[in-house]
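Project standup — Tuesday

K.O.: blocked on the structure for the chain from last sprint. Re-posting the sequence here as requested.
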Amino acid sequence: MALTKKKARWLMAKKGFLDMLPLNLAVLPWGILCGSLAVQRDFSALEAILMPLIVFAGSAQLVAIELIANNASLATILFTTFIISSRHFLYGLALRDKLKVLPTKWRYSLGFLLTDELFALSSHNKSFVGQLRLVYGVVAGGSFYVFWLLWNVAGVIAGSYLPDLTHLGLDFAIAVTFIALVIPTIINLPILVTVIVAALLSVVFKLMQFELDLVAAALIAMYCGYLTERFLYKKKDMNDEGTHKISPSVKDSI
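H.V.: unblocked you, prediction finished:
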């Protein structure tokens, strides 16, 4: 029996929710950390809840909380969070051709919900193409937003009644989440080189107490991946040229 449009949308919405559910649960420690940290840095409960409600960016949220608590200047806060969140600019560029043809309500909704997690689910070349896939994307991203807000609220409540939760190692959830997102994307040598270089340099720069450790490691790693890709292209071109230079008589004898 053919599916009705309403039934098809419901099934796609259900799939989007279920596909995002493991990541929704994986960021529970991270959300609790953000909420409890805000309370323990003298944010009011309302301010601590407004942060994930409006900002919706875990890494930037954590850093901004610390900077605000340490009375950093507005310029420092804006510049630091801009650098940390700059990867979202690349996400937008990667999906620009698909999203630019959509009505405004879809573009704004997906733009706000476009996190690392939603981008990881958007690697298929037909993502966001057609209304059913748009429903999938909005439900997947929307469910992550709701769960992220719930975990932050839980952190605000826990931070108000329990001792300092920042010493429980909950920030490890950040690393685990990103590792889970990165591993499936390693599909060729340039990406593998990028990941390995980024991992090694982030540790080295951290041990050196270099302030821009993650930014520098990411930029160097991306350049190494770019050089690797260029090397592979040149090698392929040389092999192709060598094949074309074989004389017809030699080809016939092979």
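K.O.: great, moving the ticket to review. The two ends are 57 Å apart (CA to CA). Residues 186-241 form one domain.
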